[in-house]
Design goal:
With 273 residues, this protein is α/β, with parallel strands linked by helices. It has 9 helices and 11 strands. The mean pLDDT is 95. Belongs to the BtpA family.
């Protein structure tokens, strides 16, 4: 079997990447300045323990509670995330990535600064979104990645962004094909409408069929009861909301829920051997 970058980074087939959602950061409307950054670090460390203890294959650290999101973040966001990740690094025992929502350049900068092996972002397309008109410049971002020494950072392109609609009148298969041909993503993510929302199975299958050798990740809505079905199509999964207490976005990750989903994922993967 041919070795892929997924094998090299994650060491398993069909990896499950757990989201580690950081609390609101300085500059965000929801930031708790009284509790300060130490409270963010403490919650993140507790959730990291639950995720790794529950058996996830990797973690991706994001500023998920920086709502409403910016498409070009303020410097304080990535700077604070770098401090938090620096404090967590001694405790991270699995491959890790980062995501500065919704800023591709900042995500790459953070990955280079912290040694993260992959990022996920919206790198291509123009969208009408809840955050305004959302434009991208993948050529500029690719050159920035090279300038800052990030050539080894794997880029996961989300081509079905949450809370947004592609402005061009193009079908998902053609978007996938041209994205792969013109921009050479390391992986493609397929999402539902919001964090935790189900990813349409037909959309996932369409992207997988059109992506050729480029790995495809199901990016939202993965649960213990559907992880086998989703991984039967996708090359990996990104999971956040399901791992949280009661499956609610605002809550912290809970080890028992992690174990439940990872048990189902590992049982499915065992059948592939």
């Amino acid at each position: 079997m041919t070795t892929t970058w997924i094998d090299e980074v994650f060491g398993v087939r069909k990896p499950v990447i757990a989201m580690l959602h950081l609390s609101a950061l300085p500059g965000d409307p929801g930031y708790d300045s009284a509790a300060g950054i130490s409270a963010i670090v403490n919650r993140a460390r507790t959730e990291l323990e639950a995720l790794q203890g529950g058996g996830v294959d990797a973690v991706m650290i994001s500023n998920e509670f920086s709502l409403p999101y910016l498409t070009k973040t303020e410097p304080i966001t990535a700077i604070t995330m770098a401090r938090i990740i620096g404090e967590l690094l001694p405790d991270i025992s699995v491959p890790y990535g980062v995501n500065v929502l919704w800023d591709g350049r900042a995500s790459i900068d953070l990955a280079v600064a912290t040694g993260a092996q992959f990022v996920r972002e919206i790198f291509t397309g123009v969208y009408a979104s809840d955050f305004g008109l959302w434009d991208t410049n993948v050529g500029e971002v690719a050159r920035h990645r090279a300038r800052v020494g990030g050539a080894g950072v794997k880029l996961l392109f989300n081509i079905v962004p949450e809370s947004a609609k592609y402005l061009a009148d193009r079908d998902l298969a053609s978007i996938t094909r041209t994205t792969v041909f013109a921009t050479a993503p390391d992986g493609i993510c397929v999402s539902g409408a919001t964090a935790g929302a189900p990813t349409d199975t037909d959309a996932l299958r369409t992207v997988k069929s059109a992506a050729g050798d480029t790995p495809v990740f199901v990016n939202t809505g993965v649960k213990a009861e559907n992880v086998a079905a989703q991984l039967s199509i996708a090359d990996g999964a990104v999971v956040g909301t399901y791992f949280k207490k009661d499956g609610l976005f605002a809550n912290a990750a809970e080890k028992s829920r992690v174990e439940e989903l990872m048990g189902a994922a590992k049982e499915f993967r065992a059948q592939l051997a």
